[in-house]
């Protein structure tokens, strides 16, 4: 396994590190992004932990290639804000279309270069979806008709078996969000793309734990670990 560190969007005010983890055997490509919104810090910590664990050998990718961008929106992170404009509305909406923000353009250029089979976009949200179905906390979101739907169901089932508090359980949502990384990856790259949403009301350490476990479930589903 080989882990290399690179810088996305350099040189520019949007420069941010990313990591490429190459397994010893051929296999799928998975892209993991986090910090598209600068105030969603637990998801960023989970993504950085994965990169660090791969670099140290604590986590081994046996097959395929893993691309991790732990903190996409450095400027929003510095201010601990969601970001203006909302970066997750600026990704390309059609094949001939362009990203509406240079940072989204840099992220999607990286994706086009590697053609990921999978794209996990890690986020956090308000509310527990078990209590209020219209909120996004504790959900996996994918596009309608995506081949990732049964996989998401399996991951949710495994997660929920390990979570003793029923109101903290995860749910599956299916909807398109034009301009989001998830929908752009699904429409334009034909990737299995999933948004992971933990709930802000939970303790930060718990959110990091859930994000980390979900990513590991998807890595196993992809046959990479």
UniProtKB/TrEMBL annotation:
One of its GO terms (molecular function) is metal ion binding. Residues 26-133 form the Succinylglutamate desuccinylase/Aspartoacylase catalytic domain. It holds the Pfam family AstE_AspA_cat. The keyword Hydrolase applies. Keywords: Hydrolase, Metal-binding, Zinc. Gene3D superfamilies: Zn peptidases. Its cofactor is Zn(2+). This is Succinylglutamate desuccinylase/Aspartoacylase catalytic domain-containing protein.
